[in-house]
């Protein structure tokens, strides 16, 4: 089975997968006002499904062979016969990926979006949990959702400045308490929080490491020549100013340094540099 989306104004005889309830067949007519996920048979029957788990789960830091990615991209395309059809990757508790997910990985100088970054981090967490270093480790990883929520939270902070009744976005508080993403730990049990951050003007990803012990944020950039330090510090301002209040509201236990109005953003200049791409 694969999933595609029904378009308004089309008659489609398919199985409709509701958010709740069982899958059932019916006709979606021109009166359909909302987009729904539909299920249909795939032409991939009787053929071996490509598996790159040996290339990723065992050692996610090792590059996946290009031929393997090509095979999976072809599988996703033929599975749904639609460019934007989605399949679930890494089991039922994994995440959805599309044909374009793999095309971005195969394209030279291609732009990686949130799903590519989140999948990589999920595989790293899976690998870390399966290793003997999981218990007792003092760090955790968040996905790209944190930056999106932090940006919205920062906008609210500026609107509600000086008001005591302002509350942080529940999703952010949940991340601090270890309620997301999958396999993430509570911040109270670690000293370092690693999170991806997108410099939107430069269309470039960097890594932020929140040091909960020193109350500072370190920025690791694989292209130090791409933008000046002040540009990174300005871009990360939403996280730097929001952290002290977020930790306080979530009940995080720490020292008086947490009460600083803004955590310093320190750029690490000797981070490993990428070549090409």
UniProtKB/TrEMBL annotation:
<feature type="domain" description="Ubiquitin-like protease family profile">
    <location>
        <begin position="95"/>
        <end position="277"/>
    </location>
</feature>
<comment type="similarity">
    <text>Belongs to the peptidase C48 family.</text>
</comment>
<dbReference type="Pfam" id="PF02902">
    <property type="entry name" value="Peptidase_C48"/>
</dbReference>
<dbReference type="GO" id="GO:0008234">
    <property type="term" value="F:cysteine-type peptidase activity"/>
</dbReference>
<dbReference type="GO" id="GO:0006508">
    <property type="term" value="P:proteolysis"/>
</dbReference>
<keyword id="KW-0645">Protease</keyword>
<protein>
    <recommendedName>
        <fullName>Ubiquitin-like protease family profile domain-containing protein</fullName>
    </recommendedName>
</protein>
<dbReference type="InterPro" id="IPR038765">
    <property type="entry name" value="Papain-like_cys_pep_sf"/>
</dbReference>
<keyword id="KW-0378">Hydrolase</keyword>
<dbReference type="InterPro" id="IPR003653">
    <property type="entry name" value="Peptidase_C48_C"/>
</dbReference>
């Amino acid at each position: 089975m694969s999933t595609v989306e029904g378009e308004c104004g089309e008659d489609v005889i398919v199985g409709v997968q509701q958010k709740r309830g069982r899958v059932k067949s019916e006709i979606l007519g021109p009166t359909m006002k909302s987009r729904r996920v539909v299920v249909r048979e795939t032409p991939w029957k009787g053929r071996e499904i490509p598996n790159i788990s040996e290339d990723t789960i065992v050692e996610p830091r090792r590059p996946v062979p290009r031929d393997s990615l090509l095979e999976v991209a072809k599988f996703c395309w033929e599975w749904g016969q639609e460019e934007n059809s989605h399949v679930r990757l890494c089991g039922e508790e994994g995440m959805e990926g599309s044909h374009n997910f793999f095309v971005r990985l195969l394209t030279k100088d291609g732009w990686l979006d949130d799903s590519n970054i989140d999948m990589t981090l999920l595989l790293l967490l899976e690998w870390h949990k399966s290793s003997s270093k999981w218990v007792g480790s003092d760090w955790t990883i968040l996905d790209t959702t944190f930056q999106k929520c932090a940006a919205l939270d920062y906008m609210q902070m500026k609107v509600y400045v000086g008001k005591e009744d302002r509350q942080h976005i529940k999703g952010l508080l949940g991340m601090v308490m270890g309620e997301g993403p999958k396999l993430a730990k509570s911040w109270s049990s670690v000293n370092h929080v690693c999170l991806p951050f997108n410099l939107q003007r430069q269309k470039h990803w960097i890594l932020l490491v929140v040091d909960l012990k020193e109350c500072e944020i370190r920025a690791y950039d694989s292209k130090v020549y791409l933008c000046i330090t002040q540009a990174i510090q300005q871009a990360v301002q939403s996280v730097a100013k929001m952290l002290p209040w977020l930790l306080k509201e979530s009940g995080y236990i720490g020292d008086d340094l947490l009460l600083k109005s803004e955590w310093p953003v320190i750029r690490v200049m000797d981070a490993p540099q990428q070549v090409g791409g």
